């Protein structure tokens, strides 16, 4: 620790004799008497300037030690800094150390404080540690980036696999649904075709059965005459008929054309019938009455049994007529109102 400058000597007081008998304490006439001096804070304050005593810091040995340790730390730090691969050597700057003379000279300013070993080595080590830390940080960042990239790629690939799987499942579901719909449509079509075929077969069978029935009936029934022309049909309107419409079916044929029994039955009437002329009524076994009107002659009598095709009379023009023809009426159950003779004949397998 530096000490203050020594306090100045007490002022000389002439005539004052020193009590000391030594040479240094003998009275000198050229210096005069000395006065007593009491030091104060102001009088003992160190003098600054040219005559300032250099601050002692351990002398040359301490400076050399600091210098040697600093050089060793710098060399070590430089070696450590240059040990990092791929990095340029770190420049180490040492402060200018004062020479030995400056440590004891009164004319030079006080030497700057030497940089402590901790500062020199710490700076180098901090620089080296910073660069090493930067390298490690960069490597860690690179590894972290690569790991993040790998994870992102894996997640993207997993998501793509999920999307592909979902799309494939949707496609398979759509194909399965289409196949199911196609199968259902095919089954429905097959069922419809089967039903149509069955219906057609049934209709064909019914038709065939009807044809057979009509064929059988046709063998049992017969048209009332042959070589004819249909001139007036059932229900035809006109003033020629007292009811205002035609009540039967007219078969125009030459006078004398044979009239035949349409089916097996009994003759219930045979004779003159006013506007109908000569009329024969054939009553069938089921009660249906067949009227043969406008005959020129009658070949049967009441109560006579006849079979299908037997001659019962001849075509004529008797009664209310305009020409020779057979006026045929059909009265089911003997009703006064007749039905269409053409339809009734067709129902028996006959085609008038």
TrEMBL record:
Keyword Cytoplasm: no
Xref: Pfam families: Peptidase_M23
InterPro entries: Cell_wall_metabolism_enzyme, Dup_hybrid_motif, M23ase_b-sheet_dom
Disordered: region residues: 1-40
Alphabetized UniProt keyword annotations: Coiled coil, Hydrolase
CDD domains, A to Z: M23_peptidase (cd12797)
PANTHER family documented for this protein: MUREIN HYDROLASE ACTIVATOR ENVC, PEPTIDASE-RELATED
Name by which UniProt lists this protein: M23 family metallopeptidase
């Amino acid at each position: 620790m530096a000490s203050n400058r020594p306090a100045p000597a007490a002022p000389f007081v002439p005539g004052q004799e020193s009590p000391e008998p030594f040479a240094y304490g003998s009275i000198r006439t050229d210096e005069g008497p000395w006065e007593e001096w009491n030091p104060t804070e102001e009088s003992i304050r160190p003098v600054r300037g040219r005559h300032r005593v250099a601050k002692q810091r351990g002398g040359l040995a301490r400076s050399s030690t600091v210098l040697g340790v600093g050089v060793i730390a710098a060399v070590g730090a430089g070696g450590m800094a240059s040990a990092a691969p791929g990095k340029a050597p770190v420049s180490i700057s040492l402060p200018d150390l004062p020479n030995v003379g400056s440590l004891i000279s009164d004319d030079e300013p006080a030497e700057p404080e030497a940089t402590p070993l901790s500062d020199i080595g710490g700076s180098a080590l901090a620089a080296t540690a910073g660069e090493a830390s930067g390298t490690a940080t960069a490597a860690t960042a690179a590894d972290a980036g690569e790991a993040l990239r790998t994870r992102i790629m894996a997640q993207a690939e997993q998501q793509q696999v999920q999307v592909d799987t979902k799309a494939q499942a949707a496609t398979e579901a759509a194909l399965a649904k289409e196949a199911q719909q196609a199968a259902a449509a095919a089954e429905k079509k097959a069922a419809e075709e089967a039903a149509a075929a069955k219906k057609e077969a049934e209709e064909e069978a019914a038709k065939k059965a009807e044809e057979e029935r009509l064929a059988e009936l046709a063998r049992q029934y017969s048209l009332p005459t042959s070589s004819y022309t249909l001139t007036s049909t059932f229900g035809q309107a006109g003033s020629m008929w007292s009811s205002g419409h035609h009540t039967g079916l007219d078969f125009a044929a030459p006078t004398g054309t044979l009239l035949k029994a349409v089916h097996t039955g009994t003759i219930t009437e045979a004779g003159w019938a006013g506007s109908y002329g000569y009329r024969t009524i054939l009553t069938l076994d089921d009660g249906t009455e067949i009227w043969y009107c406008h005959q020129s002659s009658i070949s049967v009598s009441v109560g006579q049994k006849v079979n299908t095709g037997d001659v019962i009379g001849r075509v004529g023009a008797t009664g209310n007529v305009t020409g020779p023809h057979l006026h045929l009426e059909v009265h089911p159950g003997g009703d006064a109102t007749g039905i269409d003779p053409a339809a009734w004949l067709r129902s028996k397998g006959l085609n008038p």
